[in-house]
Each structure stands twice: as C-alpha cells, then as structure tokens.
Amino acid sequence: FVKGEYEIPTNIYFGENSDGPFAIPCGVAKIEGAGEDTVIKVGYPAGGTAFLSVTNRYGHNPAPCHISNLKIINTGMTTFGVVTDGEGSSGSVVENVIVEDMIGVGILCFWDTKNVNIKGCKTINCGSALAGQQASGIAVTETTSNITSNIVIDSCTVIGGAYAGIGIVNAEDCKVVNCHVEDYGKIGAGAIGGKRNIFANNTIIRDTQANPQSGEFGLLLNETDRAIVTGNIVENAHIMDNDSDDCVIENNIGDVL
Questions:
Q1: What is the pTM of this model?
Q2: Are 144 and 173 within 8 A, CB to CB?
Q3: Distance between CA 71 and CA 37 in Å, rounded?
Q4: Do 223 and 213 contact (CB within 8 A), yes or no?
Q5: What is the pLDDT of residues 112-129, one digit of tens each?
Q6: What span, in angstroms and rounded, lies between the C-alpha atoms of 257 and 13?
Q7: 74 with 105: CB under 8 angstroms?
Q8: pLDDT range class, residue 143, cuts 50, 70, 90
Q9: What are the distances in angstroms from CA 99 to CA 38, 60, 170?
Q10: What is the rounded distance in angstroms from the CA atom of residue 239 to the CA atom of residue 203?
C-alpha cells in the first residue's frame, strides 16, 4: 500500500467466519504500508475483522502473515483489527501498525497460534464497553483447550479502551516488554490463567486512582503460575497477585496487593 486512504465498502469483503466478514486475508502475505499515512478504513455494521491470517473465504487454513507500517481505523462496528488465528498462523509478525476504535480487540492472537511477534504497534480506543471483559487493546487468548504460546508484545502503546490494555488469557511463555499503557478502563495489563508469562519494563499509567474494590488494577496476575513481573512502573494503581503460584514480583515501582 502506498500513502493514502483506502476505504472498504461495508458490503465488500473477502469472506466470513464466526466473527463476521473479514476484509483482507493476509495469510502467506507480506502487507506493508508507508507508515501512518497509509490508512485502511473498515466499517462493517455488525462485527467482522480487517486483517485475518487465513487463505480462504471461509476463514479456514490459517497461515503466517507479515503486516507492517499502516493504520487501520474502524468507522462502523468492526470487532477486530488484526487477528492471527490458529497454529498455522504461527510465526506471524505485526509491526508498526496503528489500530483505532475497534469494538472488541485491536490486535488479537488466539486459538493455538505460536511465536507471533507484535512490535512497535499502537492501539487507540480499542475495546468498547459493548465487548465487556473481552475488550482489549492487545489480547492473547486460548479457545477451549488450544493453548496460545510464545507471543512477544514489544514496545507497543495502548491508549484508552473500556476494559483491558494488554491481556494474556490462559496462554503460556508470552512476553509483554517495553510497552506503554495509559487511560485504560479496568486493567492495564495482566495474565489470567496460563503459565510462565513475563511482564517487564512496562509503564502503566492512568489519570485517576484505580479502585481495587471495583476490579481496577494496574497489573493483574490472576490464578496464573510462574509469572515474572519486573522493572515495571505502575502509577495510580496496584500490582495485584490473586491466587497465583510461584510468581516473581520484583523491582517494580508501584504498590503490590
């Protein structure tokens, strides 16, 4: 993609899956823009995805993708910006991508995808109240017994969103490092379930004091095992360890509950 705005009509899409229509199947593709001057607008009226790491119109056959240097904006009710879906999409790279205003999640890794690198990306106001606790700027999550693992989220910025900034759910061996999260709704970053996930050298801030009694935390470990939380700066919120085992929480700036 060269510089410019590309608007995908609401009735045009490559295929559909259980999440609705998807605009661009990016499996086995390298998609590169010219930075934030390359803008992709997607405004599906009832769900859907902008970029999905598959190769057919039914949303099957996941494959690795490489997406970089562009901006994706939801102008309707599109649920996801970029999705890597399934073990076949392992090895994908999402780099220097800006995602704005997605209803559900800006950048999502799920099912049993592995070894995905999300680097230098930014999400702005992704994850509306309509998505409830699934709302996130960046999320890594398993589905049923399919374990997502070895996802690296590095040097990303997450601004706004109704629930979580960066969420790791029932995943293993993932890293969230050198990231900046601000103005999140409930949880700045956290791991729920899963094993051996690392949060290091992140900055998590908000303008108002988080209230733990209302489920608001800067960094949350909830029923996870052997996580490492180190070198983080958490302002106006707590670091919370809830029923987790063998976790290391050290050298952070911020109060621990």
A1: 0.96
A2: no
A3: 7
A4: no
A5: 999 999 999 999 999 999
A6: 47
A7: no
A8: confident
A9: 12, 24, 24
A10: 12
